[in-house]
Amino acid sequence: MAATERLDILHHFAAVPDPRDARFVTHRLGDLLTIALCAMLSGAKSFEDMAAFGRAKEAWLRGLGLALPAGIPSHDNFRDVFRHLAPGAFQDGFTAWINAACARLGFDHVPVDGKALRGSRGVGGTCLCLVSAWVGANSLMLAQRATQDGSNEITAIPRLLRLLELNGALVSIDAAGCQTEIAQAIRDSGADYLLQVKGNQPTLQADITASFEAAIAADFEGFEHDVFLLESSGHGRQEERFCVVLYDLSRLSSRDDWVDLQAIVRVGRFRRVGGGAETYEEAHYISSRRAGAKEFAEAARGHWGIENGLHWVLDVVFREDDCRLKDRTAAENLGMLRRVAASLLRQDQGKGSV
User: Which residues are CB-neighbours of 261 under 8 A, at least 6 positions away?
Assistant: First the structure.
């Protein structure tokens, strides 16, 4: 197998630069990172847990091929490395492995979303926010980037996209990412965008609403469009979901601002629980892909897989918000480790819960 296609994580760890002074290194970086990942997969929540796991599993770790010339690192060794390890280089190693894995698996839809690490909140009141790209079909996190100090996730998304090989994929982002610069960055990566439109783009939102109202008033006569409808029931609920796509963009005054814009999308859901009142939710999107309504409906619904498949696991299983690390670098590196562990756990085909 070519080196670029290798799927073992240790191979990709080898490219991560060691931040420590070589004169005082007693534990190999690859050994330390491997122990940390295995410990995280086994429920570790702290540096003390990592060291305890290493001591309990030393014979097994040596069986994996770890040299451990100085035995098991202490919790201070783990803390020191994670505080000084360059997050970009650490993430690049994991991203190279993920890209190799996804080259085998293939993927089409990539939701992007951010999550705040509330336990990292400092004296200034701000907390670290990590933006992740997720492949719901394979339950894999593709990459992660942290927001810059004092900024929101908008600044991190273009940097995240530059890490990935997204040719032909559909990248979906919620309304916070509905920015012309982000649309351009997605197209530059070779992917198409599906961006939710809300009040942060008032002109675009008003024009989309007016377009659909005009189409409905004309009973869609003269409007190139596509429709998808799905009805479901269960657990006392009845739902009707629909997706309508308009390819006529003539009523969008800002359409030239959005690179390669091809379609506007309305997704709605009627829901009734028991004999109670009916609720209705509606969302609008823009896309550079000239796709059918069924594909857009699945992508809009699948976007929230990053909340259920990743963010929920980080909160409930890994207790991420309970981690009180104030050191930004250490918090970012541990955040990456949790996300990789969550992705690996999702690959297990057993019937047990994560």
Answer: 249, 252, 255, 286, 287, 288
Q: In terms of residues, how long is the chain?
A: 354
Q: Residue 105: is it exposed, middle or buried by C-beta count within 10 angstroms (0-12/13-18/19+)?
A: exposed
Q: Are strands 170-173 and 109-117 parallel, antiparallel or unpaired?
A: parallel
Structure tokens at 255: 């359409």
Which tokens sit at 6?
């290798």
Q: Which residues of 15-50 are buried (b: 16+ CB within 10 A; e: fewer)?
A: ebeebbeeeeeebbbbbbbbbbbbbbeeebbbbebb
CB 154 within 8 A of CB 129: no
Could you tell me the pTM of the whole model?
A: 0.84
The burial class, CB within 10 Å (0-12 / 13-18 / 19+), for 155 is middle
Q: Which amino acid is at 113?
A: D
Are 108 and 169 in contact by the 8 Å Cβ rule? The answer is yes
Per-residue tens of pLDDT for the chain, all 354 residues: 344 455 577 777 788 899 999 998 999 998 999 999 999 999 999 999 999 999 999 999 999 888 899 999 999 999 999 999 998 888 888 777 776 766 666 678 999 998 888 766 665 666 788 898 888 877 888 888 888 654 577 888 988 888 887 889 999 999 999 999 999 999 999 999 999 999 999 999 999 999 999 999 999 999 999 999 998 877 778 889 999 999 999 999 999 999 999 999 999 999 888 777 789 999 999 999 999 999 999 999 999 888 888 888 888 888 888 888 878 899 889 988 998 888 888 878 788 888
Provide the 10 A C-beta neighbour count for residue 353: 7
Indicate the residue type of 201: Q
For residue 275, give every residue at least 6 positions away whose Cβ sits within 8 Å of its Cβ, in sequence order, or none.
Answer: none
CA distance from start to end of the chain: 31
Q: What's the CA gap between 138 and 98, in Å, rounded?
A: 11
Burial of 294 (0-12, 13-18, 19+ CB in 10 A): middle
* SS3 category, 43: coil
Tokens of 194: 């599906």
